[in-house]
Design goal:
Glutaredoxin; globular
Length: 227
């Protein structure tokens, strides 16, 4: 069984869903569920057009999540007109340096949404990555800034992000965070925009139960007739 999480690194709703993602991994990875995240870049029109508008969205989502703190719109550079890809490219590039977990993208998201660092630009995004590595937040990984930047700006990373973004839209969804749950018996469940643990956990439990029931039946009765 596999859970694929589609995200944009500096999305506020992706920031809010991270505790749910972490809890799902804690509960279900020991039961053999595979977890993976992929970049699904937001479109130009998906971003706020001003800090005032961004702050309004942050107040709304913070209220819905009953958060004791608010997010900070200081990362937003309106002159970019909705083009804020650097953080996601750096997070994806980190995979090529062995950083396949959540650590780097979480450091970038925290830098933007809490510390108002302008990680939409490549230089600050690289600096955040190097700071996280120096602090030991990326495990044993070591990073060279020039090599990380070269990889983040490489056509290979761009192609991977283009492919994963197209894969996201192929599910006919447009809200991030999104989760696609698949199992070995051909079932698929798609959640787009939900951040609560309960529906995801309930669906995982149901799919795992069905998968086990199929396996138990096959063990007792063998394979289906071929004619």
């Amino acid at each position: 069984m596999k859970v694929t999480y589609y995200l944009e690194v500096i999305s506020s709703w992706c920031y809010w869903v991270e505790p749910t993602w972490a809890e799902l991994k804690t509960r279900y990875a020991p039961r053999g569920v595979e977890f993976d995240w992929k970049i699904a870049l937001m479109r130009r029109e998906d971003f706020p057009v001003s800090r005032e508008q961004c702050d309004w969205f942050y107040r709304r989502s913070g209220s819905i999540m009953q958060s004791p703190f608010g997010l900070n719109s200081g990362w937003l550079e309106p002159w970019r007109e909705g083009l804020f890809p650097a953080a996601s490219y750096v997070a994806e590039a980190g995979k090529d340096f062995g950083i396949t977990g959540d650590e780097l993208r979480l450091a970038l998201a925290h830098a933007a949404d809490r510390e108002r660092i302008k990680v939409a630009s490549m230089d600050p995004a690289i600096e955040v990555a190097l700071r996280a590595a120096a602090a030991g937040a990326l495990g044993a990984a070591t990073l060279d800034g020039a090599k990380l930047r070269a990889r983040a700006e490489s056509p290979e990373v761009a192609a991977r992000i283009k492919a994963s973004t197209a894969e996201f839209f192929a599910h006919r969804i447009d809200q991030r965070p999104a989760f696609v749950l698949t199992d070995s018996i051909g079932d698929k469940a798609v959640f787009s925009g939900l951040v609560r643990l309960a529906p995801l956990a309930a669906t995982l439990d149901a799919m795992l139960a069905d998968t086990k029931a199929y396996a138990d039946f096959a063990a007792a009765h063998g394979a289906p007739p071929v004619n």
